[in-house]
Write a structure and sequence with these properties.
The structure holds two protein chains of two kinds. Chain A is mostly helical. Chain A has 14 helices and no strands. Helix content of chain A is about 75%, strand content about 0%. In chain B, helix 4 runs parallel beside helix 9 and helix 13 runs antiparallel to helix 14. Classes of the chains: A mainly alpha, B mainly alpha.
Chain lengths: ~270, ~300
């Protein structure tokens, strides 16, 4: 009875996804076109002739690009690890443990919603300058974590609150300490929530522009975001090269997303991080 | 967790009385994050407020002995036409794009509700990739010479991002592309939570699909719409990346918003006090929006 409307709905749904993702398709295909094909009018929706010179000349022919990619991996992974290490016990304490000052931690976490990264950048620049942390991986990781951590706490608290309190209590009666119960009983159950937070904080660290722009001014410390910006600047007409670099900068987050789609959907539905 | 059940100490564990250990351990869980947030979030924020009341220059930025100047930085910022323009642009940009995002997000959520979730989840690719990449791609799509958008609409030499009248509307369009996934996924989650019986009951009562949407879906979805709207407003109002990469606020401040203005004042013109004042204005606006959000979350709980 509902097959025909359902069929049309499905066609429309697929069609709109294609339209929405077209800019990404357009970016990727530009990287294998010739300069003439990139400028062709009417545009070549499907590349007619292949030319990999955007990749070979601009990307693989330049050692700086691999350096940027490596920097981004270090910063994003560091942000993910530090965020998880700090947020997991804190969120558990908020959800399940008895302690004073819970509201302070919760207010700080929620308040971070309104802290623009750009507003943190100046004071962090001053502080990190005194500590010698500008142009260092540690500085970028610390800065990225400062905004990822509150979101992680807000996202993880309900994860722990949903795990029945009896589990940890039973383990404690059996002789495990508060920490033992948390580590051996609660954490394994909370794995999906932890993975969501891990993926989101990785994406956050990878995509950061503000701290990269302000705290990593030396070229050797640049991640892909400012690397891409510095490479092509505001007035490029080398669209093939710019799109190849963009594709490369997009690839790791895209793969992480495709591998962990459900987790990202869960995280975004719970409030997102961007 | 009553203490008479749990006072048995484990041999070889930390040599504190069991009761004290039970009381103190929770603090070991929460303290690292709390100290981190105070040191790297709260303290910098306070520092920013302090800076906005001092005459901080490139000379005394690192030494920290600038003169106190009261509200002078704020007065200077507010009387600046650049600031007024940037505020107007920020409001138009945020309200405009979020309103469109919610309408488009709602339409898409209704379309995808009965379809497999894997399909609608593909929109989140737009959310997962770095904003810098999005900005770079749209810079090309909106280019006057070789941009796809001009070809699509049969236009010639329309430089969307380099035109004083078109830059801001074009950036609202790009922001919609960026923000629609969040709106749709949130609304889709809200729609999924509405019990089917409610629709069936109203259908039996003779309500058409328009009436069902107006009298059943919308009222039940109100908290979700509000939460998604306020969160999107916060994200958009404080976002720096998209506009900075696409236009740097240009041409001639035509797409200047408060975050890009604050960045320019601080990091390009070294007017630290004035820049801090502008950034604090963003903070106050977001603070008020967050209050609305927190109240909304409370009411939902």
């Amino acid at each position: 009875m509902r097959t025909r409307p359902y069929f049309f709905r499905k066609v429309a749904g697929i069609g709109l996804v294609v339209v929405y993702l077209f800019p990404i398709y357009w970016m990727i295909t530009a990287t294998v076109k010739t300069q003439e094909a990139i400028r062709a009018v009417p545009p070549q929706i499907v590349p007619l002739s292949w030319d990999l010179s955007s990749w070979t000349d601009r990307i693989f022919g330049d050692p700086r690009v691999m350096r940027y990619i490596m920097n981004s991996f270090i910063v994003a992974t560091g942000t993910m690890v530090l965020t998880l290490a700090l947020a997991t016990p804190a969120a558990y304490a908020l959800a399940r443990l008895r302690l004073k000052g819970k509201s302070l931690l919760m207010i700080l976490s929620l308040a971070s919603l309104m802290f623009p990264a750009i507003m943190l950048a100046t004071p962090l620049f001053v502080i990190f300058n005194r500590l010698g942390l500008t142009d260092s991986y540690l500085g970028l990781i610390l800065a990225d974590t400062s905004l990822a951590l509150p979101y992680a706490i807000v996202l993880l608290r309900p994860t722990f609150a949903r795990i029945p309190a009896d589990f940890a209590e039973a383990a404690q009666i059996d002789g495990a300490g508060v920490f033992g119960a948390f580590w051996r009983v609660v954490l394994p159950i909370a794995r999906p929530g932890l993975a969501t937070v891990g993926v989101l904080s990785f994406l956050w660290g990878w995509g950061d522009l503000v701290f990269a722009l302000t705290l990593a001014t030396e070229d050797r410390m640049r991640p892909v975001t400012t690397g891409l910006w510095g490479f092509f600047g505001a007035n490029t007409s080398d669209w093939g090269g710019a799109m190849a670099f963009s594709t490369l900068a997009m690839l790791p987050p895209l793969l992480v997303f495709l591998w962990s789609q459900r987790l990202v959907v869960a995280g975004v539905a719970a409030g997102g991080l961007k | 967790m009553t203490s008479d059940l749990t006072t048995r100490a484990r041999p070889g564990a930390l040599r504190l009385p069991a009761g004290a250990r039970r009381t103190l351990t929770p603090y070991l869980f929460a303290l690292p994050a709390l100290i981190y947030l105070i040191g790297l979030l709260a303290y910098p924020m306070v520092l920013n407020v302090v800076t906005s009341f001092r005459d901080v220059t490139a000379m005394n930025l690192l030494s920290g002995d600038a003169d106190w100047v009261g509200w002078s930085n704020y007065r200077q910022a507010f009387s600046d036409s650049q600031f007024v323009d940037a505020t107007v642009h920020s409001v138009l940009y945020s309200l405009g794009s979020v309103a469109i995002q919610l309408v488009v997000g709602m339409a898409l959520a209704l379309l995808y509700l009965p379809l497999a979730r894997g399909l609608s989840a593909l929109y989140l690719i737009g959310y997962a990739i770095p904003i810098v990449v999005t900005a770079e791609v749209f810079r090309w799509l909106l280019d006057g010479k070789t941009g796809f958008v001009n070809w699509l609409f049969g236009l010639h030499d329309v430089y969307w991002l380099a035109d004083r009248h078109l830059a801001l509307p074009a950036m609202i369009g790009v922001q919609v592309w960026l923000g629609v996934p969040f709106a749709m996924v949130t609304l889709l989650a809200g729609l999924t939570a509405i019990p089917r019986e409610l629709f069936e009951a109203s259908a039996i009562d003779g309500a058409g699909s328009g009436a069902r949407f107006r009298y059943v879906t919308l009222p039940l979805l109100r908290p979700t719409i509000l939460a998604a709207g306020i969160l999107s407003l916060i994200f958009t109002f404080k976002n720096f990346d998209l506009i900075w990469i696409a236009t740097q606020g240009g041409p001639a401040n035509a797409s200047e918003v408060l975050p890009t203005l604050g960045y320019k004042l601080v990091f390009l013109q070294f007017l630290f006090g004035k820049g801090a004042a502008v950034l604090n204005v963003i903070f106050v606006v977001l603070f008020l929006l967050s209050l609305v959000y927190v109240r909304q979350v409370r009411r939902e709980d």
